Amino acid sequence: MVLAAAVAAGCATGPGDEEIAGKSAAMLRTSFRPAGQAGIDRLEQDDTQRSCSAAAGKPLPSELAAKIEQANLATIRYPADGKLLGDWRNGEKIAQEGRGKQFSDDPNGPVGANCYACHQLSKTELSFGTIGPSLYQYLKLRGNTAEMQRYTYGKIYNSEAFAACSNMPRFGHNGILSEQQIKDVAALLLDPASPVNQ
Amino acid sequence: MIVARASLALMALVLAPAVMAQGSTADEIAKYRAALQDGNPAELWEIRGEALWRDPRGPKHASLESCDLGLGAGVVKGTYAQLPRYFADADRVQDLESRLVWCMVKLQGLTEAEAQQTPFGNGNAAKSDLEALTAYVTSESRGVKMNVPARHPKEIEAYRVGEKIFYYRAGTHDFACATCHGDEGKRIRLQDLPNLMTAAGAQKAYTTWPAYRVSQGELRTFEWRLYDCFRQQRFPELVFGSDAAIALTMFLARNANGAPFDAPAIKR
C-alpha cells in the first residue's frame, strides 16, 4: 500500500490511473489463453466487477454502493413454485464440493459452492475458512421467517444485492448453481435438522 | 548426504498425519513444516539446474553462463533478489523465468516454444528444465535482501499494472487476487492466506517461492504459483512468461523489498 502510493506519487507525470487500468485490461487479454471450459470471455467485466476492481479494496462511496446493490437486486429470480428451501443433505454436499468452473474441471462434472472454503457451517466440519462470517447456528441467530428465507435465497443467488463488492460469488446470477442447488444450500442454513443448527 | 536428507523429509511426511492428529492448531502445522525444512528435496532441483546452467546445450552447443540476469553476464549470485527488472537488450521487463527463456533462445539457439515447452514438471512423465534452472538461480540469492528496482519507466508501469491486475475481478466467481489476499489473518479451509497488501505479508509469501510442494512432489516456481491461483480464480490459463504474469510478479516482488530472500523453501 505504502509502496503503491510512493510509486504513484513518484510518477505524477506518468500515465494516469485510467490509462493504467486500460493497459491492464488489454494486457490480460493477451496474457491468457482459453483452456477447458474457461474462455477468454471470462476476462470481460460487467459494471459491478469493474466498479469493485477500481475501488481497490477501499470502501465505496455510499451512492455507488447503493447503485451496485440495486442493480444486482434486480437480477434475482425467485423460484416460480415459491418454495425457497430444498434438501439440506444435498446442501451439505454442495457446501463441501470445491470443484466447478475451473479450466481443469470436467465441464460435465459436479459444480459446488465450496461454502466451507470461507465459512464455518457445522460443528463437526473443522476444516473451514474464515474469509466469510461463521454461519453456525444460522437459524437460531436469524429465525426462520418468510423474510429470512427470501433474504437467504437471494444472498446465495446474488450476494452483491445486499453488500456491494462482497467477496462472495453470485451463485445464481453467474450460473454457478442451479435453482434447486440454491434451495438446497438455503435449507442447509435454515432447516432445523441441518448440522448447521445442531 | 542429499539422499539422506531427502529421506528424512519422507519420514517427516509419513509421520505427518500422526503429528497433525494431536491438534488441529496452526502450531502443529508450523512444527510439521519445521520438520520438513530439515531435508528439502528442492536441493535435487538446484543440483540439476546448476548443471543445466553450466553445460553446453541446444543447437549452438552453448552454456548459459554468459546469460545476463541483471547484474552482468555470468553473475548469478543475488540476481533473483533484484528481479523482475527492465532489460535493454530485450526492451522489456522480465522475471527470472522469462529471462531464462530469452537466454536459452539467444545463447543456445532454442526456439521460444522449445525453451518453454515444459514450464511445470509432472513427476517422471515430464521434467521441467525451467523449474530446475529457477531452483538453482534462486538458491544463489538465499539471504540476500529483496531490492527490486523501479527506475525505468517500464518498471514503474509494470508495477502499476500489476497492482491493477491484483484487484481485477472477473470470471464466473468475481474473484480477484485481493479476494483471498487482501485481508489480515484469513484462511481457506485450514490454509492460512498471506495478506499481500502489507509489506510483512508480501515479504513472507514472496521470499518463500520457489518451494518444494510436498503434496505434489514437485518444485514449484512463482510463475506456477500465479498460474494455479488464476486457475482457482476461474480465469482462463495464464500464458507462461506473459506480460500480465511479469507485471503481477513485479508488484508482489517489489512489495517484498527489504526482506531477505529465503528460498527454495518447502511447503505442504
- The parts of chain B where pLDDT drops under 50 for at least 5 residues are 1-22
CATH superfamily of the largest domain in chain A: Cytochrome c-like domain
Tell me the series of helices and strands of chain B, N- to C-terminal. HHHEEHHHHHEEHEEHEHE
Question: CATH topology of the largest domain in chain A, which one?
Answer: Cytochrome Bc1 Complex, Chain D, domain 2
Order of helices and strands of chain A: HHEHHHHHH
Number of strands of chain A: 1
Radius of gyration of chain A: 19 Å
Apparent shape of chain B: globular
Shape of chain A: globular
Sheet of most strands of chain B? 3 strands, mixed
Please report the distance between the alpha carbons of the first and last residues of chain B: 23 Å
Q: What's the total helix number of chain B?
A: 11
Distance between the termini of chain A: 43 Å
> In which order are the strands of the major sheet of chain B placed?
6-5-8
Q: What is the radius of gyration of chain B computed over CA atoms, rounded to a whole number of angstroms?
A: 18 Å
Q: What is the number of domains of chain A?
A: 2
Structural class of chain A: mainly alpha
Entry summary:
The complex is a heterodimer of chains A (198) and B (268). Chain A is built from 8 helices and 1 strand.
Give a description of the structure.
The complex is a heterodimer of chains A (198) and B (268). In chain A, 42% of the residues lie in helices and 1% in strands. By secondary structure, chain A is mostly helical. Chain A has 2 domains: 2-60, no CATH class; 88-197, Cytochrome Bc1 Complex, Chain D, domain 2 (Orthogonal Bundle). In chain A, α5 packs across α8 (179-190) and α7 packs across α8 (179-190). Chain A is globular, with a radius of gyration of 19 Å. The mean pLDDT of chain A is 94. In chain B, the strands form 3 sheets. Chain B has a 3-stranded mixed β-sheet with strand order 6-5-8. Chain B has a two-stranded antiparallel ribbon with strand order 1-2. Chain B has 11 helices and 8 strands. Chain B has helices at 2-21, 26-37, 42-54, 96-108, 112-115, 129-139, 153-166, 177-181, 199-206, 222-232, 243-255, and strands spanning 85-87, 92-94, 187-188, 191-192, 211-213, 218-220, 237-238, 265-267. Chain B is mainly alpha-helical. At the A-B interface, α1, α2, β1 and α3 of A face α7, α8, β3, α10 and β7 of B. β1 (32-33) of chain A pairs antiparallel with β7 (237-238) of chain B.
